[in-house]
Amino acid sequence: MQKESSGGRWWNQPRTVWAVAFAATVSFMGIGLVDPILPAISEELQATPTETSLLFTSYLFITAIAMFFSSWVSGRLGARNTLLLSLAVVVAFSLASGLAPSVPWIIAFRALWGLGNALFISTALSTIISESRDADGAIILYEASIGVGMALGPLAGGLLGTLSWRAPFIGTAVLMAGAFVAILLLLQKHAVVKTRTPLFAAFTGLARLPLLSFALVALFYNMAFFVVLAWSPYPLGFNAMGIGLTFFGWGLGLALTSVLAAPALTARFRRTTVIAAGLASLLAVLVLAALFVESAPALVVLIIAAGLILGVMNTVLTESSMAATDLPRPVASSAYSGLRFLGGAVAPPVASAAGAAFGASAPYLYGAGALVVALALFALLYHRLCVVDGAHQEDALEEAEALIGNAD
C-alpha cells in the first residue's frame, strides 16, 4: 500500500485535521475522567468496586458493539454530520451522568454516552486519515490526541472531583460542547460526502485474516490496558487529586511515546518486532504490579511505566491494522476498533471481581494472563501479521528514494 508523504512531519496537517484531533482529545478525556472519582462514587452512593467498574463496562461494551455499525452510519450521514451527531449525544449523556441519582442510572447514561463515543472514534480516525497530508502522520496525531485526552481526563477528574463526583461529568459536557462547535466551524461541508456502506461491512471486513489477526491481539491487549486504568485507583489508596495526578503521569507518558517513541521504533525495527516487545514489556510490568501492589510508590512508578509502553502499542497496532488491509478506512476502523474495545469492556468487572475474591494483586495477574494469550495469538498468527512488515519495508524504500531524489 502506498502512502503520501509530508516529510514525516505529523504536525503538518490542515486545520480540519486539528479540529478533529481536538475533539478526539476531549472525547478520550471521558474514559479516564472517572478514575479519580471511583472511590468517591463507591463511598457516597454505597456501591462496591465491582459495581462502579460497570461505569467502564457499560460505556465500552456499547462503544464496541456500536463501532461495528459506525461505518454504515457515517456512510449515510457523511463524516461531518456523524461527528456532530456523536458529540451531541456525548454532551447530553455526560451531563445526564453528572445529574444521576444513583449508580445504576450512571451506568445506563454511560452506556448511551458510549454510543456517541463509538460513532465519534471510528469516524474521527477515518476522517483524520482522509483529510491529512500523510496517513502515518495522521495516525500518530490521532494516537497523540488519545494520549493527551487520557492524561488530561484523570487530571480534570481529580481537580473537579475535589468539588464533587458530579463535577467531572458536567465539565466533560461543557468541553464536548466546545468540540462540537470546533467541528461545526472548521470541518468543511465536503466531509458530508455519503457512501453506500453495507450494514454488516465491519463483520465482513473481519473476514480479512490479517485485519482479524491484529484485532484479536488488540482485544486481549486491551484487557490489560483497562485493568491498569480501572483497577489501580483502589490499591493506590489516594484521594481524587492523588489518583488524578498519578494517571496524568500515565497519560502523559502514553502521549509522548505515541508521538516520539513509536515512529522512532518502527523506523528502526519491524512493526511486528515492536508489538511483540511491547506485549512482553507490559506483561513484565503487570507481574511486578501484582508483586508490589501494597507499595503505593512502586505502583505509581509501574502505572507510569505502563503508560509509556501503551503509547507505543496503541500507535503501532493502529498503524498495522490500517496497513493490513485495502478496505475503506471507515470499515477497517470500525472492525478493528469494535473488537478491540470488547476487551476493554470485559476487563473492569472481571478484574474487580478477582480483586474482591482473591486480593488486590489478582486483577494484575488477570491482565498478565490476557497478555500471555495475546502473545500466544501473536505467535500463532504471525504469518498473517507480518504482512505489515512488507508494507513497512516498501514505505522505507519510498522514503529513501525520495531523499535521494531531493539530494539530486
TrEMBL record:
It is a multi-pass membrane protein. It comes from the Bacteria. InterPro entries: MFS (IPR011701), MFS_dom (IPR020846), MFS_trans_sf (IPR036259), Tet-R_TetA/multi-R_MdtG-like (IPR001958), YfmO-like (IPR053200). It is found in: Cell membrane. SUPFAM superfamilies: MFS general substrate transporter. Signal peptide: none annotated. Keywords: Membrane, Transmembrane, Transmembrane helix. The keyword Plastid does not apply. The chain crosses the membrane at residues 16-34, 54-75, 82-100, 106-128, 140-161, 167-187, 199-221, 241-262, 274-293, 299-317, 338-358, 364-382. The keyword Cytoplasm does not apply. It holds the Pfam family MFS_1. This is MFS transporter. It comes from Nocardiopsis coralli. The lineage of its organism: Bacteria, Bacillati, Actinomycetota, Actinomycetes, Streptosporangiales.
